[in-house]
Design goal:
Rossmann fold, binds zinc ion, seven-stranded parallel sheet
Amino acid sequence: MARTVEVPQYEVHGEVRLDPARTALVVVDMQNDFVREGGSLVVPDAEGTIPAIRSLLEGARNSGAKVVFTQDTHTGGDPEWDIWPEHAREGSWGWEIVDGLAPREDELVIRKVRYDAFYGTHLDHFLRLWNTKTLVVCGTVANICVHYTAASAALRWYEVVIPKDATSALDPFDLESSLRQTAFLFNGTITTTEAVRLEKENPEAYRSKMEEAARDG
Ligand code: ZN
């Protein structure tokens, strides 16, 4: 029997300012099987997050922040298909990242075999190489791959930011309880796409600051 429980309050932050040089945007599993009609494991709300994710991508690309895509990847006999219907079969249409969010050639695509994008992959290697401090995690599914990736990042002491309108789950309880866990347990920052500010230091302001410093000797 279904029972109603209340999700405890968590803060949804207004403006979140991030240094693009130390930030990576991680777009989780926005693949046809999870997002598009005809996919094998569709999250009905996922398609509606494409514009928000596109806007985050634009912000990251324009500011020079790193961009990472994760791609759930399975082959025949994968035990995950005992838990879920067959999905993300390597090489299939369902496995491909949706058209509207295609990775650019210079962007990292992490093929992952489990919910956690760090598990058995090179993700941490690249984040350390880039001197990354903060991960902005979006995509689907909020309480599964987004959650376990955010959790794994937080355990490694990366700061985690989740714009809640850029993630989706099968059920509102799953979404809310996952965000509450991220805020409460990992000290993560829950926010909205619009509130994420990735701003390169203004070169003019930098130059005048340097000139001022030189003048003052
Ligand atoms: Zn999977």
